[in-house]
Amino acid sequence: MTQLFWAALAPLLVSAAPPRAPRIVSLNPCIDAVLMQIADPAQIAGISHYSQDARSSSIPLAQARRFRATSGTAEEVVALAPDVVITGPHVEPATIAALKRMHIALVQYPVPDSVAESAAQVRAMATLAGHADRGAALAGRIEAAARPSSATPLPALIWQSGGLVPGAGTLSDDLLRRAGFRNMSAVYGLKKWDVLPLEYLIANPPRVLLSISAAEVGEDRLTSHPAVRRLGRRITLAPYPARLMNCGGPTIIAAMARLKQVRGEFGS
């Protein structure tokens, strides 16, 4: 389903809901993070179990543990008696069928590929929750944090363990550009999400390598390779936490702060 479809559907779902603010269950940790800022706590009937795991949460664990968590099974969700379930693009068919039988609305949002898409989703979710003003405020903060830098673009690459790289058309690509970087993914001929062989990295290194593994475990087998270390000053390794690239929404604010911090070390 397209984002525009759900944005148009949200007001209809709100008008069809009871007069009280709708009870919401989220099955997605990225949506959990948005709900924390645009919905009343009493509205949040359940969140994704991923948000109660430090390895995958986009919100503080202490905050996440104030809410019921669900793994997304039909039985769990129906037991929470929500008015609407909000989730990402992938939902188990059994859960969809159960929600349909129980006349519980299901709204799915695609993974945002840009700041603009993420801000639009925030506004749509807030309208669905009955708090359009909060959505507008959060979207405004996201857009302000992601205001494009005027610095000369610096060649960079985001590198995950195993060499997985986000390319053109991803949210990470949009954030890199806005922070004053040029995503080197296209130079290597990579797809939207692709694996970059170490040999290509060494032959044509970016000026900055934003390493997910360096942020999480301190060292990665590939980035700690002697050939990479021999590049010396030709490449700067900067830790970049995985939680900053897993979600849009309010995570964009923290991601942009980190990217601008790294870019600021090189001047204009």
Automatic annotation (TrEMBL):
Which keywords belong to this entry? Signal
Q: What is this protein called?
A: ABC transporter substrate-binding protein
The cross-references to InterPro entries, in alphabetical order and at most eight, read: ABC_Transporter_SBP, ABC_transptr_periplasmic_BD
| Domain of life, per lineage | Bacteria
Species of provenance: Sphingomonas qilianensis
Signal peptide positions are 1-16
User: What positions does the domain Fe/B12 periplasmic-binding occupy?
Assistant: 24-230
